[in-house]
Amino acid sequence: MREEKDVSYPQKPPLPAAEMESFFLRQTIGVVCSHNSDETIHAVPVQLAYRDGAFFFGTQGESRKARNLMRNQDVTLLLDERSKPYRSVTVYGHAEIERHNVEDTRVWVLSTTTPVHVARDFVRRMDKEFDSLVVRVWPKKVVSVDYSKTGFIEQPRERQWVASGRSVGERHGTKERTL
Q1: H helices within 102-152, ranges in order?
Q2: What is the pLDDT of residues 20-34, one digit of tens each?
Q3: Cis peptide leading into 16, omega within 30 of 0?
Q4: I need a surface site. Which of 45, 77, 80, 95 has the fewest CB within 10 A?
């Protein structure tokens, strides 16, 4: 997995590599983006878990995300922390679909937020009605942003620079207007 480092536009610094693993382990919800057959993007939140260099989530074979990933294994995950310090990681990866012996993995994923006995009961009920799957996402590239790091966000808003090279106030024709 490689991390994108060189950007030609203003952006907050990335998460330090030493913090990446603990960030992944804290995440329980992520947004999975897959390709619809008409080439649009399907984005849906899922409960997920991370171990041994891969992300896991459960789904049903009938779901749109599963059908999309069976057709095209390229997948993007958005993982973010929406409370201070704000951080986000976009994971570009390859999805592997597991169809057999998935109960324990599905229970493990759900048990990150639910008692194990409740997770196991839920998974067993789902297995009776649907074709249960586990999707394993292997990261190929990771892009992260750590808003707790110093940088342009701490500057006064009217002095922030946008990609056009003009300050926010200049972009709108006034120094008083901010984003």
Answers
A1: 103-110, 116-129
A2: 999 999 999 999 999
A3: no
A4: 45
Rg for the chain (alpha carbons), in Å?
20
Q: Are 79 and 30 in contact (CB under 8 A)?
A: yes
Is 124 in contact with 164 (CB distance < 8 Å)? no
Q: Say what the pTM is.
A: 0.78
Distance (Å) of CA 44 to CA 15, 27, 76, 99, 109: 24, 15, 11, 21, 17
Instruction: State the pLDDT at residue 1.
Output: 62
In the numeric block, the tokens 């390229």 are attached to: 74
Instruction: Parse the chain into domains and list their residue ranges.
Output: 8-148, 151-179
Residues linked to residue 140 through DSSP beta bridges, in sequence order:
none
Beta-strand runs (E) in 36-168: 41-47, 49-51, 54-60, 74-81, 87-98, 132-146
Q: Please answer whether residues 29 and 48 qualify as being in contact, where contact means their C-beta atoms are separated by less than 8 angstroms.
A: yes
DSSP state of 62: T
pLDDT in tens, 38-81: 999 999 999 999 999 999 999 999 999 999 999 999 999 999 98
Pairing outcome for strands 2-3 and 132-146: parallel
